[in-house]
């Protein structure tokens, strides 16, 4: 799953025509490692309908601060440049699927 940095945030997330799922994570976060494979599956499942990216909060603290990320993993859905929903914690795939389906 591609990583997003401060300089690519606008073009890849806010200007994207498709809904975008962004996982905020950090290398030292155990639950983040549990959710990575789920996000990878969702990325394949919704190919062409949804873009999936990840943001390392240690490397891009500006983005995390802008969206008030206090705990990771946090998965956010963006559509038309706006934050639409957020799911905090390592949740089951079904929870994320339900969230995604609302914005497709």
From TrEMBL:
Residues 1-104 form the Thioredoxin domain. Signal peptide: none annotated. The keyword Transport applies. GO terms for molecular function: enzyme activator activity; protein-disulfide reductase activity. The keyword Cell cycle does not apply. Keywords: Disulfide bond, Electron transport, Redox-active center, Transit peptide, Transport. Disulfide bonds join 29-32. It holds the Pfam family Thioredoxin. Transmembrane segments: none annotated. GO terms for cellular component: cytoplasm. CDD domains: TRX_family. InterPro entries: Thioredoxin (IPR005746), Thioredoxin-like_sf (IPR036249), Thioredoxin_CS (IPR017937), Thioredoxin_domain (IPR013766). PANTHER family: GEO12009P1, THIOREDOXIN M4, CHLOROPLASTIC. Belongs to the thioredoxin family. This is Thioredoxin. It comes from Gossypium davidsonii.
């Amino acid at each position: 799953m591609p990583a997003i940095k401060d300089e690519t945030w606008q073009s890849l997330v806010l200007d994207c025509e498709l809904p975008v799922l962004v996982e905020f994570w950090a290398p030292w976060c155990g639950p983040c490692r549990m959710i990575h494979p789920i996000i990878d599956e969702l990325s394949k499942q919704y190919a062409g309908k949804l873009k999936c990216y990840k943001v390392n909060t240690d490397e891009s603290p500006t983005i995390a601060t802008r969206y008030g990320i206090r705990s990771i993993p946090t998965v956010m859905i963006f559509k038309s440049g706006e934050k639409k929903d957020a799911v905090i914690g390592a949740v089951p795939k079904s929870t994320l699927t339900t969230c995604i389906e609302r914005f497709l």
